[in-house]
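call fold(seq) -> tokens
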Amino acid sequence: MTRVLVVEDDPHLVRALVLNLRVRRYGVDPAPDGVTALRLAAARRPDVVVLDLGLPDMDGVDVLKGLRGRTRVPILVLSARRASDEKVAALDAGADDYITKPFSMDEPLARLRASVRRTEAMVLAPGTALVTTDAFTVDLLARRATRAGRDVRLTPTEWHLLEILICDPGRLVTQKHLLQEVWGASQSSKTDYLSVYMTRLRRKLEADPSHPPHLVTEPGMGYRFAT
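ret:
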């Protein structure tokens, strides 16, 4: 049974989420505040977290950072905050998806299913658990990247992009496919998202980010990982 931690202080929304999840055979642990969320995350070890940013005791981004310090499970943010810089801050802090309130119940349920599918489907190809290039090394099982012997901090979104590319070395991965896998079908035309994150990955990993030999752009089509 997939266990979901629902972190939300609106009792009506909590009730709707809990009922909809349980009828679909998810295990659910509700948390009304950040302190309870962090305690339940340690005790119950959820498979997915649904997190509101507007909590009574802590800012949701701080809760997000606290969760990311102990778990790599998908975290779906629910928030009334619509500004793009606030969305970017949540994604950079470790969110895997961002859903703006108000929403129909079908949307978070669909995105939750997609996040679980992505997690379950991430099967490593033979020989790709540890990938070494002349510039950096990536251990996908340990979720660790190093460059020049030093750990490189990657956000969950950066990790997801890198995993998709590394798990099928040499193959062209289209922009649309990457956008759908990482941000969802509704964002499949937002190529600027992809460009920003690929630029960040290159700055963190490539020896020469302006002429990257490993994270290669195929103009107008997508990207490929070259060893």
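The two ends are 38 Å apart (CA to CA).
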